[in-house]
Amino acid sequence: MRAKQEAMKSETTPKELIKKMLDAEHFLIVQDIDGVCIPLVKDPLERKISISYIEAANKLNGQFYVLTNGEHEGSRGVNRVIEEAYKIANLPFKKDRYLPGLAAGGIEFQDTFGVVDYPGVSEDELEFLQEIPKKMELLLYENLSKIFSSLKPLEIRTITKSAILSTRFSPTINLNKIFNLIPNDVAMQQDIQRMLEKLMDKLLLLAAEQGLQDSFFLHIAPNLGKRANKEVIKFSSIGDVGTTDIQFMLSGAIKEAGLLALINRFIKARSGRAPLGDDFNVRTAPKSFEKLKALCKEKITANDMPLLIGVGDTVTSNLSADGKAWLRGGSDRGFLTLIQELGKEYSIQNKIVLVDSSFGEVDRPSLSNNKLRGISDPEDPLKFNTYFRNGPKEYVEWFSQLAEERRR
């Protein structure tokens, strides 16, 4: 009963959150993108972002960063989505309207002018990544030809090509278009998820054979946390499609490390001094959650630490098959948890914001039943303070209101 009362006490309405932020000496929003300000779609090339959101982000420049596993640049990058929004609206695009922050899990930093940097990435790694989409396509085509033997080769080739996301730092296989062929066949969806994991493991082995055994890892989205330092697939179930993407990512590209890199940049912009060092990046950052927290506490003073507002949508929690443990994961869980823990360490009331991304085209657990089933659980150490139950549309409206009130 006490835990429930404490949770209710910590809940902050969107309107109250704006007041708390504007009352703070300085605040920093660290926000995911897909599912938060962009509704989830089955084809990433069909993503849409509102101009009101882009303009609001520009007004909040200096107190706002994105932190995403997607990418800024490239044909599938968020920068193309932003440019397209102005083109569709027949409005001139201003060159400082890109979203500042980290992409590719923390590898790719850009400012509002779209100037990109990726410290710590070697030429050997970039060359290997450049070849990965071709290898993905070959392996996926072979596997899908066996699974969908009734389809013509051209049909399988088309589906295969649509599943490969040829991003620069995190080439990905996305299952949404494949799942469209079997929308109600949970067992077959699970078989395809298993196939995909084996396929991606082969690519890791290939990297090891070329002397890059420590350069990459697989990010499974959404996932059920880690087991033996490997992310666990969330298998499809009725009403929850589970894992839809596996990304081939550079080691160190975890959002918790990205969070520290962004805090470091924020403090340097305000004070002229980078407490973690000018060269700090996710590839040189500590690898464990506890070491990241300890480094932050050691190097960053309470006076420098801003009020942190963490915004995400991909958090999962499901009971294990034997019913004895909760399997917790999701690509936003780590950085949101670190924000919560830093709030305790610095005695700052950091806020954790959850956006309901079930309104998009991808089946996700919803906040509509108030029980957070599939998202959280009664024993979950991660506690949410503010909810956007009506999804990205509601969040964008709130975000725009915050930007306007901050200017007054």
Folded structure, characterized:
- The protein has helices at 2-10, 14-23, 51-59, 78-88, 123-147, 153-163, 176-179, 186-209, 255-271, 289-299, 333-346, 391-407, and strands spanning 27-31, 64-67, 101-103, 108-110, 116-117, 164-165, 172-174, 216-221, 223-227, 230-233, 245-250, 307-312, 316-319, 326-329, 351-355, 386-388.
- It is built from twelve helices and 16 strands.
- It has two domains: 2-43 and 50-67 and 254-407, no CATH class; 123-168 and 171-250, no CATH class.
- A hairpin with a 5-residue loop joins strand 4 and strand 5 (116-117).
- It is α/β, with parallel strands linked by helices and 408 residues long.
Number of helices: 12
User: Average pLDDT, to the nearest integer?
Assistant: 95
Strand order of the largest sheet: 5-4-3-2-1-12-15-16
Class derived from helix and strand content: alpha/beta
Uncertain residue ranges: 1-8
- Please give the radius of gyration in angstroms: 21 Å
Largest sheet: 8 strands, mixed
What is the number of E strands?
A: 16
Order of helices and strands: HHEHEHEEEHHEEHHEEEEHHEEEHEEH
Strand content: 15-25%
Looking at the structure, what is the overall shape?
globular
- Please give the share of residues in helix: 25-40%
Domain count, please report it: 2
**N/C terminus separation:** 42 Å
